[in-house]
Predict the structure of Protein PsiE.
Amino acid sequence: MFKLFLCKKRKYLITTYQIILNISLIVLGFILVYFLLRELFYIMNDALTGNNNVHKILGKVLVFFLYFAFVSMIMTYFKESCHFPLSYLLYIGITATIRFIIVNNNYQIGSLFLSLGIIALTISYLMLTKKRLEDNERRI
């Protein structure tokens, strides 16, 4: 009897935390969309006013894509029944690192280490994709 009571309490607690997490992610999504649109406005403003500082504009584009990646990650969380697929997180890590290298290319040794990180993430992504294909073939 006591175990049944604990099991029901545990399910209630997990459900409560899941609801709090979902509401927090929805609110965070709206905040990120606001900042995404604001950054887009700044980029358009720089383009229309003739701002020639390429590094500043690329920095703003980087921030825009970071907001975009976070918003799409929240959307993926809800599309995938409230979990993040590992392949999606690897993909975001690869693209974010490439964007960072493009914008901050002043430090060659740092770019080299980041490139090694990209290779490691890419190999992980390929291994995960290969495993997923093998699992799908076994099911068929």
Q: What stands out?
A: The chain has two domains: 11-83, 85-140.
